[in-house]
Specification:
Alpha-Beta Plaits; 4-stranded mixed beta sheet; two-stranded antiparallel ribbon; 8 helices; 10 strands; 19% strand; globular; binds iron/sulfur cluster; iron; 4Fe-4S; metal ion binding; 4Fe4S_Fe-S-bd; iron-sulfur
Length: 241
Protein backbone atom coordinates (compact mmCIF):
# COMPACT_ATOMS: atom_id res chain seq x y z
CA UNK A 1 0.00 0.00 0.00
CA UNK A 2 1.51 3.40 -1.00
CA UNK A 3 2.61 5.44 2.00
CA UNK A 4 2.86 9.16 2.77
CA UNK A 5 3.97 11.64 5.41
CA UNK A 6 1.75 14.37 6.79
CA UNK A 7 3.87 17.12 8.40
CA UNK A 8 1.75 19.51 10.46
CA UNK A 9 4.10 22.47 10.89
CA UNK A 10 1.54 24.20 13.13
CA UNK A 11 2.53 21.75 15.90
CA UNK A 12 6.31 21.83 15.48
CA UNK A 13 8.39 23.16 18.40
CA UNK A 14 11.72 22.80 16.55
CA UNK A 15 13.07 20.37 19.14
CA UNK A 16 15.01 18.71 16.27
CA UNK A 17 14.38 15.21 17.61
CA UNK A 18 13.48 14.14 14.05
CA UNK A 19 16.76 15.46 12.69
CA UNK A 20 18.82 13.64 15.32
CA UNK A 21 16.83 10.39 14.97
CA UNK A 22 17.39 10.43 11.21
CA UNK A 23 21.16 10.76 11.68
CA UNK A 24 21.23 8.10 14.34
CA UNK A 25 19.20 5.51 12.41
CA UNK A 26 21.36 5.95 9.30
CA UNK A 27 24.59 6.04 11.26
CA UNK A 28 25.41 9.30 9.54
CA UNK A 29 28.33 11.36 10.85
CA UNK A 30 27.88 14.70 12.57
CA UNK A 31 28.25 17.85 10.49
CA UNK A 32 30.70 20.48 11.70
CA UNK A 33 28.89 23.79 12.06
CA UNK A 34 29.41 27.30 13.37
CA UNK A 35 27.08 29.79 15.02
CA UNK A 36 25.84 32.31 12.46
CA UNK A 37 23.07 33.90 14.50
CA UNK A 38 20.32 31.34 13.95
CA UNK A 39 19.28 28.16 15.73
CA UNK A 40 19.13 26.36 12.37
CA UNK A 41 21.96 23.90 12.51
CA UNK A 42 23.51 22.86 10.17
CA UNK A 43 22.77 25.61 7.69
CA UNK A 44 21.59 23.25 4.95
CA UNK A 45 20.91 19.63 4.04
CA UNK A 46 24.01 17.67 3.10
CA UNK A 47 24.92 14.11 2.05
CA UNK A 48 24.80 12.96 5.68
CA UNK A 49 21.89 15.16 6.81
CA UNK A 50 18.67 13.97 5.18
CA UNK A 51 16.36 15.85 7.52
CA UNK A 52 16.78 19.49 8.54
CA UNK A 53 14.54 21.63 10.72
CA UNK A 54 14.62 25.04 9.06
CA UNK A 55 14.09 28.17 11.20
CA UNK A 56 12.66 31.36 9.74
CA UNK A 57 11.84 34.65 11.52
CA UNK A 58 9.17 36.57 9.62
CA UNK A 59 6.77 39.40 10.28
CA UNK A 60 3.12 38.53 9.61
CA UNK A 61 0.30 41.00 10.43
CA UNK A 62 2.75 43.26 12.29
CA UNK A 63 3.88 40.43 14.57
CA UNK A 64 7.16 38.57 14.53
CA UNK A 65 6.72 34.81 13.99
CA UNK A 66 9.22 32.01 14.32
CA UNK A 67 8.35 29.46 11.62
CA UNK A 68 9.71 25.89 11.63
CA UNK A 69 9.89 23.58 8.62
CA UNK A 70 11.14 19.99 9.00
CA UNK A 71 12.56 19.63 5.49
CA UNK A 72 13.02 16.27 3.72
CA UNK A 73 12.46 14.51 0.37
CA UNK A 74 8.81 14.63 -0.74
CA UNK A 75 8.95 11.20 -2.48
CA UNK A 76 7.34 12.59 -5.65
CA UNK A 77 4.85 10.36 -7.46
CA UNK A 78 6.52 11.20 -10.80
CA UNK A 79 9.98 12.18 -9.49
CA UNK A 80 11.86 14.60 -11.76
CA UNK A 81 15.17 13.49 -10.18
CA UNK A 82 14.54 9.90 -11.30
CA UNK A 83 13.40 10.88 -14.78
CA UNK A 84 16.67 12.75 -15.32
CA UNK A 85 18.79 9.96 -13.76
CA UNK A 86 17.08 7.31 -15.92
CA UNK A 87 18.43 9.07 -19.03
CA UNK A 88 21.95 8.54 -17.66
CA UNK A 89 22.13 5.34 -15.54
CA UNK A 90 19.09 3.07 -15.33
CA UNK A 91 18.45 1.86 -11.80
CA UNK A 92 20.38 4.68 -10.13
CA UNK A 93 17.09 5.93 -8.66
CA UNK A 94 14.23 3.48 -8.18
CA UNK A 95 10.69 3.59 -6.81
CA UNK A 96 9.75 0.95 -4.26
CA UNK A 97 6.51 -0.53 -5.61
CA UNK A 98 5.00 -1.31 -2.23
CA UNK A 99 5.47 2.06 -0.50
CA UNK A 100 6.15 4.52 -3.35
CA UNK A 101 9.48 5.46 -1.73
CA UNK A 102 11.90 7.15 -4.16
CA UNK A 103 15.17 5.35 -3.35
CA UNK A 104 18.71 6.35 -4.35
CA UNK A 105 20.89 3.27 -4.99
CA UNK A 106 24.68 2.96 -5.03
CA UNK A 107 24.47 3.30 -8.82
CA UNK A 108 24.00 7.06 -8.34
CA UNK A 109 27.81 7.11 -8.01
CA UNK A 110 27.97 6.06 -11.70
CA UNK A 111 25.98 9.04 -12.99
CA UNK A 112 28.04 10.93 -15.56
CA UNK A 113 26.20 14.11 -14.57
CA UNK A 114 25.07 13.99 -10.91
CA UNK A 115 24.05 17.64 -11.11
CA UNK A 116 21.18 16.63 -13.42
CA UNK A 117 18.99 14.93 -10.76
CA UNK A 118 20.06 17.53 -8.19
CA UNK A 119 18.92 20.44 -10.31
CA UNK A 120 15.76 18.65 -11.47
CA UNK A 121 14.44 18.44 -7.91
CA UNK A 122 11.85 21.18 -7.40
CA UNK A 123 12.41 21.00 -3.63
CA UNK A 124 16.23 21.31 -3.61
CA UNK A 125 16.75 17.98 -1.83
CA UNK A 126 19.50 15.69 -3.23
CA UNK A 127 23.10 16.19 -2.17
CA UNK A 128 26.32 14.57 -3.44
CA UNK A 129 28.84 12.80 -1.23
CA UNK A 130 32.19 14.29 -2.32
CA UNK A 131 34.02 11.08 -1.33
CA UNK A 132 31.89 8.41 -3.01
CA UNK A 133 30.09 10.62 -5.58
CA UNK A 134 26.84 8.96 -4.48
CA UNK A 135 23.71 11.08 -4.23
CA UNK A 136 21.97 11.04 -0.88
CA UNK A 137 18.62 12.01 0.62
CA UNK A 138 15.78 10.69 2.80
CA UNK A 139 15.07 7.01 2.06
CA UNK A 140 11.72 6.93 3.93
CA UNK A 141 13.52 4.65 6.43
CA UNK A 142 12.50 1.87 4.05
CA UNK A 143 14.23 -0.78 6.17
CA UNK A 144 12.07 0.18 9.16
CA UNK A 145 8.85 0.56 7.14
CA UNK A 146 9.32 -2.83 5.46
CA UNK A 147 9.51 -4.32 8.96
CA UNK A 148 6.31 -2.71 10.17
CA UNK A 149 7.93 0.24 11.96
CA UNK A 150 7.46 3.97 11.50
CA UNK A 151 10.27 6.09 10.04
CA UNK A 152 12.68 7.18 12.78
CA UNK A 153 11.71 10.88 12.47
CA UNK A 154 8.03 10.03 12.94
CA UNK A 155 8.68 7.63 15.81
CA UNK A 156 10.45 10.28 17.92
CA UNK A 157 8.36 13.37 17.16
CA UNK A 158 6.74 14.32 20.51
CA UNK A 159 4.18 16.82 19.19
CA UNK A 160 2.27 15.04 16.43
CA UNK A 161 3.93 17.14 13.73
CA UNK A 162 5.34 14.08 11.95
CA UNK A 163 2.75 11.54 10.77
CA UNK A 164 3.19 8.54 8.47
CA UNK A 165 0.77 5.96 7.11
CA UNK A 166 -1.25 4.89 4.09
CA UNK A 167 -1.38 7.57 1.40
CA UNK A 168 -5.16 8.07 1.43
CA UNK A 169 -5.26 8.11 5.22
CA UNK A 170 -2.55 10.82 5.37
CA UNK A 171 -4.28 12.87 2.70
CA UNK A 172 -7.54 12.73 4.65
CA UNK A 173 -5.73 13.73 7.84
CA UNK A 174 -4.10 16.67 6.01
CA UNK A 175 -7.48 17.87 4.69
CA UNK A 176 -9.11 17.53 8.12
CA UNK A 177 -6.35 19.46 9.90
CA UNK A 178 -6.34 22.11 7.17
CA UNK A 179 -10.08 22.71 7.67
CA UNK A 180 -9.50 23.10 11.43
CA UNK A 181 -6.52 25.43 11.08
CA UNK A 182 -8.24 27.60 8.47
CA UNK A 183 -10.87 28.65 11.01
CA UNK A 184 -8.26 30.88 12.66
CA UNK A 185 -5.58 31.05 9.93
CA UNK A 186 -7.42 31.58 6.61
CA UNK A 187 -4.16 31.67 4.62
CA UNK A 188 -3.26 28.08 5.62
CA UNK A 189 -2.39 25.62 2.81
CA UNK A 190 -1.13 22.10 2.21
CA UNK A 191 1.64 22.22 -0.38
CA UNK A 192 1.48 20.29 -3.68
CA UNK A 193 -0.51 17.35 -2.21
CA UNK A 194 -1.33 15.55 -5.47
CA UNK A 195 2.26 15.28 -6.63
CA UNK A 196 4.15 13.64 -3.82
CA UNK A 197 4.02 11.65 -0.59
CA UNK A 198 4.92 14.31 1.97
CA UNK A 199 2.17 16.82 2.74
CA UNK A 200 3.16 19.96 4.68
CA UNK A 201 0.45 22.00 6.37
CA UNK A 202 1.53 25.65 6.76
CA UNK A 203 -0.43 28.42 8.51
CA UNK A 204 1.02 31.17 6.35
CA UNK A 205 2.38 31.73 2.84
CA UNK A 206 4.77 28.78 2.20
CA UNK A 207 7.42 31.20 0.93
CA UNK A 208 7.76 32.59 4.47
CA UNK A 209 8.95 29.20 5.72
CA UNK A 210 11.48 28.37 3.02
CA UNK A 211 11.92 29.23 -0.64
CA UNK A 212 11.48 25.56 -1.66
CA UNK A 213 8.61 24.74 0.74
CA UNK A 214 6.47 24.25 -2.36
CA UNK A 215 7.80 23.37 -5.79
CA UNK A 216 10.15 25.87 -7.32
CA UNK A 217 11.14 26.07 -10.95
CA UNK A 218 12.97 29.36 -10.65
CA UNK A 219 16.60 28.49 -10.06
CA UNK A 220 18.77 29.48 -13.02
CA UNK A 221 21.89 27.56 -13.95
CA UNK A 222 23.27 24.95 -16.34
CA UNK A 223 20.38 22.63 -15.43
CA UNK A 224 17.68 25.23 -15.12
CA UNK A 225 14.87 23.72 -13.01
CA UNK A 226 12.13 25.28 -15.10
CA UNK A 227 13.30 23.66 -18.36
CA UNK A 228 13.93 20.35 -16.57
CA UNK A 229 10.40 20.32 -15.22
CA UNK A 230 8.93 21.33 -18.54
CA UNK A 231 10.65 18.34 -20.11
CA UNK A 232 10.14 15.66 -17.54
CA UNK A 233 7.13 16.45 -15.40
CA UNK A 234 3.84 18.20 -14.98
CA UNK A 235 3.62 21.64 -13.38
CA UNK A 236 3.33 21.64 -9.58
CA UNK A 237 0.90 23.78 -7.64
CA UNK A 238 -0.69 24.20 -4.24
CA UNK A 239 -3.97 22.26 -4.37
CA UNK A 240 -5.50 22.25 -0.90
CA UNK A 241 -6.42 25.81 0.07
S1 LIG B 1 10.62 16.10 16.23
FE1 LIG B 1 8.62 16.95 15.67
S2 LIG B 1 8.40 18.80 16.95
FE2 LIG B 1 10.57 18.22 16.99
S3 LIG B 1 11.48 19.42 15.31
FE3 LIG B 1 10.94 17.44 14.45
S4 LIG B 1 8.89 17.76 13.58
FE4 LIG B 1 9.27 19.46 15.00
S1 LIG C 1 11.59 15.73 -3.68
FE1 LIG C 1 13.30 15.88 -5.09
S2 LIG C 1 14.68 14.24 -4.48
FE2 LIG C 1 12.69 13.80 -3.58
S3 LIG C 1 11.66 12.46 -5.08
FE3 LIG C 1 11.03 14.58 -5.53
S4 LIG C 1 12.47 15.24 -7.10
FE4 LIG C 1 13.38 13.43 -6.14
S1 LIG D 1 11.97 9.05 6.86
FE1 LIG D 1 13.91 8.30 7.70
S2 LIG D 1 15.42 9.01 6.19
FE2 LIG D 1 13.57 10.21 5.84
S3 LIG D 1 13.82 12.06 7.06
FE3 LIG D 1 12.69 10.58 8.32
S4 LIG D 1 14.27 9.53 9.51
FE4 LIG D 1 15.31 10.54 7.82
Amino acid sequence: MPKAFFIDTTKCTACRGCQVACKEWHNNPATETKQVGTHQNPQDLNYSTYKLVRFSEKEVDNKLHWLFFADQCRHCIVPPCKEVADMDVEGAIIIDEETGCVYYTEKTAELSDPEGPIMACPYNIPRKDPNSNRLAKCDMCLDRVQNGMKPACVQVCPTGTMNFGDYEEMKELAQKRLAEVKKTRPAAVVGDPDYHRCFYLMEYDPGLYYEYAVASADVPGPHDRRSMLANVSRPFKVLFT
